[in-house]
Amino acid sequence: MEIDKKRFKNMFPHLSEEMENKPNRVAISSIRSDAQTGECASSKKFDGYIPDVIDFIRRCDNERQAEEIIDFLERRREIDSAYARRLKRQLREKGVRSFGPKKQDDYYSRVGMV
Q1: 77 DSSP assignment
Q2: DSSP H or E segment with residue 38
Q3: Interatomic CA distance for residues 5 and 114, integer angstroms
Q4: In angstroms, rounded to a whole number, what is the distance separating the alpha carbons of residues 102 and 84?
Q5: pLDDT for 114
Q6: Mean pLDDT for the stretch of residues 33-39
Q7: Which of 7, 38, 56, 71 is the most exposed place for a label (fewest CB within 10 A)?
Q8: Can you give the pLDDT at residue 3?
Q9: How far apart are CA 95 and CA 89, in angstroms?
Q10: Burial level of 66, CB count in 10 A (0-12/13-18/19+)?
Q11: What is the CA radius of gyration of the chain?
Q12: pLDDT at 32 > cutoff 70
């Protein structure tokens, strides 16, 4: 369907203004005709990503759970004792949400799709 520029401007004044305003343009790097292929490609944002202690703490509901996570990772030597002490100090002084908002169960699937 073809439409001339003037008619388009009359029909869609705001859209036309957005399209003509060059700083607000977004490049499209690819197009997929198959929705399932597109979903798989976009959900690979976290492929190979290994959550760290902060990611685990952000799933906690309270300080006790967060401290258990820190202790567990320290015992497994995934974090060193100096870092564990800093995390526990922050936890005591500022609380569990000082590490970031709570990550819900479907965080990686929701954010990975964006």
Answers
A1: T
A2: helix 35-42
A3: 32
A4: 20
A5: 45
A6: 59
A7: 7
A8: 81
A9: 9
A10: buried
A11: 23
A12: no
